[in-house]
Amino acid sequence: MPKKSFGLRKSVHKKGQPQAAQNAAAAAAAQVTASPPIKAVPGAVSAGAALKAPPATFSSQIASRNDAGDRALVKKPEQRQSSSRFRTTRRVELTKLANLKDTPPKERSTLFVEKVKQCCALFDFSEAVSELKSKEIKRAALNELIDYISNNRKVIVEDMYPEVVNMFAINLFRTLPPPENPNAAEFDPEEDEPTLEAAWPHLQLVYEFFLRFLESPDFQPNVAKKFIDQSFVIQLLELFDSEDPRERDFLKTTLHRIYGKFLALRAYIRRSINNIFYAFVYNGARHNGIAELLEILGSIINGFALPLKQEHVKFLMKVLIPLHKAKSLSVYHPQLAYCIVQFLEKDPNLTEAVITGILKFWPKVNSPKEVLLLNEIEEILDVIEPEEFTKIMQPLFQKLSDCVSSPHFQVAERALYFWNNEYLMSLVNENANELIPLVFPSLYKNSKTHWNRSIHGLIFTALKVISEMNSSLFDDCSARFKSEQEAAEAARAAREERWAKIEELALQNPLSKQIPLPHPKLPTPMPLIIMKVPGAGPEKRTNSGADGDFSMSDEPIVRRKSVLPQDPATIRALEDYAKSEHVLNAVPPK
Questions:
Q1: If you write DSSP's letter for every residue of 340-379 in order, what string do you get?
Q2: 33 vs 240: CA distance, rounded Å
Q3: Whole-angstrom Cα distance, residue 527 to residue 324?
Q4: Neighbouring residues of 296: CB distance < 8 A, sequence distance ≥ 6
Q5: Are 224 and 56 in contact (CB under 8 A)?
Q6: Pick from 420, 423, 346, 360: which is nearest to 396 by CA?
Q7: Degrees (nearest 5) of the Cα angle 326, 239, 373?
Q8: Is 540 helix (H, G, I), strand (E, B) or coil?
């Protein structure tokens, strides 16, 4: 008996079973072992299994392919160079078929199907020099199929649909690997290099061919709906998490074409995209395709009929608004702002809820995110209705006043650019009595105290606009601000005077000499460092003069180091370390 059969017989033998049951199990195991291997069909090798005629639906097609192919998956080494899951178990040798243009018209459809089956062969692109001949044959076949579909009419027949969908699924539907650094910060397209797909030379052509097939005037959605179903859509959406931006761009176009061609799948596509967003917003899941999915939704929102359905309003409030709180907002913010503006152009009554939601998620210490939200707010104000503006002007301009006072010059600069918006200034002019007193204190104060000079110029421009808008109101605000400043200064002086009197009375108490008054420990003052001016003699700063004059001195200038407090525990640890080093470096006695 062969050793392999004996191993199987031993694995099915269990203690306590009747002898007849043991013999039956052993016979079944031997029969499985002796079964002949599955033969591969020439020109359509994939997943180590034979390519049969496509089933009636895509779901059953994928199930039948995976049942035979999952056992033949090749485990790649840990050093992954691409995101493909290769299913080939042996080298694939392709034979070049005849050209379609050189074939009689009656035989072209059959040759077309054979070429599509030939393109189901998968190759390992982690080895650049392996199987070059077969890779080139597949590439040439895909290019020929693209050219044939693009330049000919009435060439798509019903037998082609299952084969094309099958080829697309075999080449593209795969399990994506986890990110190489899942705990890294957000992806920055300008700084970080994306992980590119090694098999892209073939995948790009497969995407292009499938797109040309969908966009062909001969394409019949009623025939294709048997194969492009909900299972196909859900696996297509899973590929949006690919780290290769080129693949996500093709996926975006492909899904948009499917949404336009198959009316029965539209609601399912929207729900599936919503589920991805829910996981991203509320579960904290990472996803690489949020920007592309939002771009698809932007065109979908543009086609919504009025009045908006409740599910669309719910999507706005439960998905689009909470997307503002994600850390990676900068990656997809342009597409998100476009979707928001599209909703408000459809229904201006949603403006109050949208701006209130954005102000709710306003960051406290993230200056780049503040700049992004200010950009979005201005885009919303460009399409806002005057009656909707009055509902949100108080909290909005209070936030603008806070941004003008921001120490980050980009935030203050972006907030001051609002005063260059003519439409916004017309709305402010209509509500000047309520809005100008809100922003005047921050404008007037930062015109003298902000550290950036460019901010001073922008503030003066804003103050000039306000004065020209309503000079009497400007004078009233200026006088009120000065009186408030004087009152605050007087209150501070009175408070200090009262504390001085309390301290004087405390010193007059006879017990003050017995009980010392506690004095807070002040931080160590930084020493004064004076650098020598090139070409000049030594200098020494004196306290004479209001501006701190300089006087020349012949004494050499010594640059003093910062006075830092020394921790006794740290000093002892360093001494012990030095002692241990001395012991280790000592020469052992002979």
A1: HHHHHHH-GGGHHHHHHHHHHT--SS-HHHHHHHHHHHHH
A2: 41
A3: 46
A4: 252, 255, 256, 259, 273
A5: no
A6: 360
A7: 20
A8: strand
Question: Do the beta carbons of residue 88 and residue 123 sit within 8 Å?
Answer: yes
Angle at 277 between CA 271 and CA 283, to 5 degrees: 125
Q: Please report, rounded to a whole number, the percentage of residues in the chain having pLDDT higher than 90.
A: 51
At 381 the three-state DSSP class reads helix
Cis peptide before 104 (omega within 30 of 0): no
Per-residue DSSP letters for 440-487?
HHHHHHHHHH-S-HHHHHHHHHHHHHHHHH-HHHHHHHHHHHHHHHHH
Write out the two tokens for 24: 């039956």
Q: What is the dihedral of CA 219, 220, 223, 227, to 10 degrees?
A: 50
With beta carbons less than 8 A apart as the criterion, state whether 409 and 443 touch.
Answer: no
Quote the CA–CA distance of 406 and 412 in Å, as a whole number. Answer: 6
Give 186-231 pLDDT, tens digit per residue. 556 666 677 788 888 899 999 999 999 999 999 999 999 999 999 9
3-state secondary structure of 46: strand
pTM for this model (two decimals): 0.71
How far apart CA 430 and CA 46 sit, in angstroms, is 70
Based on C-alpha coordinates, what's the Rg of the chain? 37
Q: Are 304 and 312 in contact (CB under 8 A)?
A: yes
